[in-house]
Write a structure and sequence with these properties.
Order of helices and strands: EHEHEHEHEEHE
CATH topology of the largest domain: Rossmann fold
Strand order of the largest sheet: 3-2-1-4-5
CATH class of the largest domain: Alpha Beta
Number of strands: 7
Radius of gyration: 16 Å
Largest sheet: 5 strands, parallel
Mean pLDDT: 87
Helix content: 25-40%
Shape: globular
Length: 172
């Protein structure tokens, strides 16, 4: 069974961490895709062309970082990053969206940014947040998977346990 993974990517260092985690989670047979959310279209056609080119360039940079020029890439137009990615995940039947930690997060720590946090607070898809600095340990392993205390129906814990079994990790 293939697990669809979407990595939210904007070219920042912490989103390079998300690439590292996405690559690790994808393993060999899982589908991995990159997504960049643009928050508005430009009125002027030339400015729109430039904005679209910038988005595509960022995703190309992510594909290059992964060493996979054929990785699917999506430029999403939505006023909300989380909402846009959730709709993309539903359309692509992805089971998880991977984010980098908030830009102020110290290395080795995990701190969801606002878009990841909104999806963690009741979004329709699982969310993974990469520890800051993970890009420097891209060939590492995942030792533990945390589950939010607000997992009312147990679905997050169940997903985490299945993933932990595949990765040889523990659930905390």
């Amino acid at each position: 069974m293939s697990v669809g993974i979407i990595v939210s990517y904007d070219g920042t260092a912490n989103d390079d961490d998300a690439l590292a985690l996405g690559k690790m989670l994808a393993g060999g047979d899982s589908k991995l895709a990159l997504a960049y959310v643009r928050h508005a279209s430009e009125f002027d056609p030339r400015r729109e062309e430039i904005a679209q080119h910038d988005a595509e360039r960022r995703l190309e940079q992510g594909a290059s970082w992964l060493g996979n020029p054929d990785v699917p890439r999506h430029v999403v137009l939505s006023p909300s990053t989380g909402e846009g990615l959730a709709k993309l995940a539903e359309r692509e039947r992805a089971s998880v969206i991977v984010f980098g930690s908030d830009y102020r997060t110290p290395p080795g720590r995990v701190e969801p940014g606002s878009s990841a946090q909104r999806l963690l607070d009741g979004g329709p898809v699982a969310v993974a947040v990469a520890p800051a600095g993970m890009r420097t340990r891209a060939n590492g392993t995942i030792a533990s998977i945390a589950v939010s205390a607000s997992d009312a129906d147990g679905a997050a814990r169940e997903s985490a346990q299945a993933l932990a079994a595949l990765l040889g990790a523990s659930v905390v």
